[in-house]
Amino acid sequence: MTPYQPNLIMSLQNLLIVTFFTLIIQQAHSQRNYEEYNRLGLNGGLTLFDINTDNFDTGQGEGFMVGFTTRGSFRNNFDLIYGINFYNNTVKINAFSAGIPTTAQQRPLEYIIQSAQINFLGSYNIIKHHLSLEFGPLLNVNGKMNLKDDSFEDYVVSGYETLTAGDIEDISKINFHLMGGITGGLESFRISAHYQYGVTNMLDNLNDKEIENNGSEFEGHSSTIVIAAILYF
C-alpha cells in the first residue's frame, strides 16, 4: 500500500460521514419547518428489452438494473424524482451461419447492452406516499451492443447477404427515452412498473459505416419494461 492511500481512505470516509449527516439534518429541517418530503433510496429490478426495427429480426431479452434515486415533494400532489441507474440489457437478433441458407441453422444471437441512465421525472400522487403515476425524460449513455458469444461474430444477419453479427455492434452511444409508469407500496418500500421508449434512433451510428444496409437507413428505437423495488431511507 502506498503512503498516501491511508490518508485518501480516511478523507473519503470523512466525506461520506459529513455528507450523510448533512443530508439527514437538511431533510429533518425541511420536513419539520416546511412539511416537505425528501427521501433517498436504492432501487433494483428486472428489465425486458427489445429494439423496434424493420432492419433486423429481434427478440425480447431479459436483464437487470440497479441505481440510486431521490424523491422530494414539489407542489400540491406532485413530487420530483431524479437519480442514476445502471442497466445490463439483452436483446436477441436472428442470424445464420455464412454459406448456409437462412432456413437452416438460423438462430437468435444474444447481445448485451450496458448503460447508465440519468432521470428527472414528475410524479403525481394518487395516494400520497403510497401510490403514484410517474413520467418524464431519461438520458441514456450506453456502450456497444456486444455479442455475448464472440464465436458467432461471422454469422450473417437474417435478411442480408454479407452483413455479419459483428458488423452491427457499434450502435449510437447517447439516446433519449421517455418513461411512464406506476409506483405503489409503503412510505419506505415500493414496487415500480414502468415502460421506456427510445425517441432517438439507437442504430443511427450504423449509417455512418460502410456495411450492407439493403438500400435503406438503419433505424431502431428501444422498448424497455422495468419491474423494480425501491427502498427509501
Model description:
The structure is a single chain. The protein has 233 residues and is mainly beta. It folds into 2 domains: 36 residues; 196 residues, Porin (Beta Barrel), CATH 2.40.160. 13% of the residues lie in helices and 55% in strands. It contains 1 helix and 9 strands. An 8-stranded antiparallel beta barrel has the order 1-2-3-4-5-7-8-9. The N terminus is likely disordered.
Features of this protein?
233 residues, mainly beta, Porin, 2 domains, 1 helix, disordered N terminus
Number of strands: 9
**Helix and strand element order:** HEEEEEEEEE
Largest sheet: 8 strands, antiparallel, barrel
Contiguous uncertain segments of 5+ residues: 1-6, 8-12, 29-34
Domain tally: 2
Widest beta sheet: strand line-up: 1-2-3-4-5-7-8-9
SSE arrangement:
Layout: H1 4-34, E1 38-53, E2 58-75, E3 78-96, E4 107-127, E5 131-147, E6 156-157, E7 174-185, E8 189-198, E9 220-232
Antiparallel strand pairs: 1-2, 1-9, 2-3, 3-4, 3-6, 4-5, 5-7, 7-8, 8-9
Concise structural overview:
Helix content is 13%, strand content 55%.
